[in-house]
Amino acid sequence: MNPVLVEVWRGNAIESEHAGAIAVVDAGGTVAHQVGDIERPIFPRSAVKALQALPLVESGAAERLQLNDDELAIACASHNGEPEHVRTAAGMLAKAGVDAEVLECGVHWPYQDAISRALATRGETPTALNNNCSGKHAGFVCLACGLMGWNDAGLDLRQYVKGYVRPEHPVMQEVTDALQSTTGFDLSRAPRGTDGCSIPTYGIPLRHLAHAFAKFGSGIGLRDGQARAARRLRQAVAASPFMVAGSNRFDTAVMQRLGERVFCKVGAEGVYCAALPERGLGVAIKSSDGNNARAAEVVMAAVIEALVRLDDEERAFMRRYSEVTLKNWNGIEVGSLRASQALRSSLRA
């Protein structure tokens, strides 16, 4: 049974609790901090998008297509579907000579209500470009350019890309290889499912995920091409953190404030992963009840507070996320959302 990591207070009493597990691992594979079960395979979902983007850069496709910081950052993103995100993903596809019709991520309304209302007011409906995974999928399409030899073999990109979400497609084989080589976990024997954007998702223990992000943040333990790709992706995200999430999102706010000291990425069902390059550490979090904003974000904020070099203003900034004031519809303070004392104590050990 995983311990309580986050408490929901109403007045002076605990109203709810969120349990979970955390692994903090260095690039050599040594566990620096452990809370709960870090050996049970969990589906990391979108938290590993940066690892899935490594082949895009390592293959030379990103350089050949002259993908800029915005475009590389959105390849790692779970974005809001705001206009800037839509334009950036569309721009990547244009560089590859295709359009949004090749995307196989599906369609959903933008995450931000204001953006969805603006679309509806204009009489428009969302497209695959509004999907939070459109940047990642645009990256897969760009990777396909490199894998097919840049049309040198007379292949039609649109036909070559078709079905790229299937496990047996060359694009997904490259992406899966990157995930296996960075985590060091045998994916052929791992639980497998289908992610929300239709690509395969594999069950991987938190310890292996944290180790992968320690390697992603330091380059240690990666082959040379992967290490260069990881460094380029980290630089791009630090330069364009808005593309990774968007307005009023934890990932964007934290990376805007802390730059290359933190790379963090949310995944569905209460998963969070991070690289802390200055410390040479990787972090992987799973909220047992699948809660993101009310639990996993609070845990990640507490981890950053404890393990990243912060000045007083930065520490106060992070405290707003690890101890969240809760107000009702009249603006009256009614309680708080807090990292548990047990969690904070474990991170000090």
Protein architecture, described:
It is a single chain. The protein has 349 residues and is of the alpha+beta class. 42% of the residues lie in helices and 19% in strands. It has helices spanning 49-52, 54-58, 61-64, 69-74, 83-96, 113-121, 134-147, 157-161, 170-183, 206-218, 224-239, 250-258, 292-307, 312-322, 341-348; strands spanning 4-10, 13-26, 31-35, 41-42, 192-194, 200-202, 204-205, 263-267, 271-276, 281-287, 323-327, 333-339. Strands 1, 2, 3, 8, 9, 10, 11 and 12 form an eight-stranded antiparallel β-sheet that branches. Strands 4-7 form a two-stranded antiparallel ribbon. Helix 10 (206-218) crosses helix 11. The longest helix is centred in the middle third of the chain and has 16 residues, at 224-239.
Amino-to-carboxy terminus distance: 21 Å
What kind of sheet is the major sheet? 8 strands, antiparallel
Please give the share of residues in helix: 40-55%
Principal-axes geometry comes out as: globular
Beta-strand portion reads 15-25%
Order of helices and strands: EEEEHHHHHHHHHEEEHHHEEEHHEEH
The total number of structural domains is 1
Unreliable stretches covering 5 or more consecutive residues = none
**Structural class by SSE content:** alpha+beta
Note the total helix count: 15
Find the count of extended strands (DSSP E, 2+ residues).
12
Question: What's the overall average pLDDT, rounded?
Answer: 95
Give me the Rg, rounded: 20 Å
